Amino acid sequence: MKPLENETLVNDPQVFRPEMIVFDTVYAPRTTKLMQVVQAAGVHHIFNGLEMMLEQGAACFKLWTKQEMPVDYLRQLLFSDKD
How would DSSP label each residue in 8-69? Predict the structure, then answer.
């Protein structure tokens, strides 16, 4: 996230394998420097922090309201306009 959006602790794509799942907890920018490195390594399952934030919000919503949050609807809104 700003001001470090062009930095990552892991710069070497050889650290990653295509069958790995990589989850960056950062959600802005949507495609982080780590995600770019991972894409260069050919990893197929790459996620940013939006999914984690959504699931955390859903858990809090249920805790506070005792109702299920419309996760699928909100996921559609969050991911409909990538980058």
Answer: -S---GGG--TT-EEE----SSSS-HHHHHHHHTT-SEEE-HHHHHHHHHHHHHHHHHSS--
Interval 50-56 mean pLDDT: 93
* CA 29 – CA 83 distance, rounded (Å): 8
Q: Residue range 17-31: average pLDDT? A: 94
Phi (first) and psi of residue 58, to 5 degrees = -65, -40
Give the pLDDT mean for 33-44: 96
Taking alpha carbons only, the member of 75, 61, 1 closest to residue 32 is 1
Label residue 82 by pLDDT band (50, 70, 90): low
Q: Which residues contact 71 (CB under 8 A, 6 or more apart)?
A: 54, 55, 58
